[in-house]
Amino acid sequence: MEFDKKRVVVTGGAGGLGRPLCLAFARDGANIAIIGRNAAAGSEVIESIRTCKRDGYFIHSDFSAPDDAARAVSEAANRLGGLDVLVNNAALALRRGLHDATVDDWTAMLNVNVIAPYFAARAAAHAFTDRGGVIVNISSEMGRLASGQSMLYAVTKAALLHLNACLSVALAPAGIRVVALAPGPFRTPMLESSIQQSGASLEEGLESYAARIPIGRLAETQEVTDAVLFAASDRAGFMTGAVLNLDGGTTVPRV
Ligand SMILES: NC(=O)c1ccc[n+]([C@@H]2O[C@H](COP(=O)([O-])OP(=O)(O)OC[C@H]3O[C@@H](n4cnc5c(N)ncnc54)[C@H](OP(=O)(O)O)[C@@H]3O)[C@@H](O)[C@H]2O)c1
Questions:
Q1: pTM of the predicted model, to two decimals?
Q2: What residues are in contact with ligand 1 under a 6 Å CB criterion?
Q3: What's the number of domains the chain is made of?
């Protein structure tokens, strides 16, 4: 088991990606703390983690107060008896563009998607031991692509990619690796809500996403969790500051 007794924190661990990600880590031997707002959903995931005979804890935090992410990661590390991996997975995806965003929308998106991951990473860096640790930042292909309609999401996900690069430089001397994922669309409550906000039906929305992906389909959630586990594992021991594009070819430059 690749993560036997490793201590893993997943923000948004009860969400569409977070839940299968926590279970994948647990099946591979890790003990896990979930950080999020929804205690009921969190408790369900904790129960599933415990059926894998691993420890699981839910730590409440609302990243609309983004520095609370530092308190939550420190508390998670205390409960787990230390920390080996942080996954900055929680995110907010309001569909806002040039003409409809307010200052409150900007603040909400920046808090959850950029500032909270910064404070979470800082607390993780303090909690990792001399053996180092790994931070995985879940960004998006939208951090690499311009979008008129989801401008705030694209800008915050681009900022997270640059935070990933800056953290990797700051933390490499301490033996801490920092890796980002830039996935294309995969089916979760976030994607469904995004389609709903666009006014399209779910079926139309899913078809139109698939149609613009060179591979011709959405990612499977397991393809995303597999990439996170790889990035967090010792097999990726020389990888830091990297961005794993998991987008079926969407961001490959073409003529
Ligand atoms: N689904 C896609 O197509 C797609 C594509 C590319 C990248 N991504 C990225 O993948 C990651 C996971 O997304 P998902 O699709 O699984 O979305 P999701 O189902 O909406 O889950 C998002 C999670 O973020 C947490 N969260 C949101 N606001 C929060 C706040 N204020 N404080 C604390 N936690 C908060 C939620 O936790 P609570 O409900 O407990 O608050 C939720 O569990 C995100 O970083 C997303 O940007 C998704």
A1: 0.98
A2: 12, 14-18, 36-38, 41, 61-64, 89-92, 112, 138, 140, 183, 185-186, 188-191
A3: 1
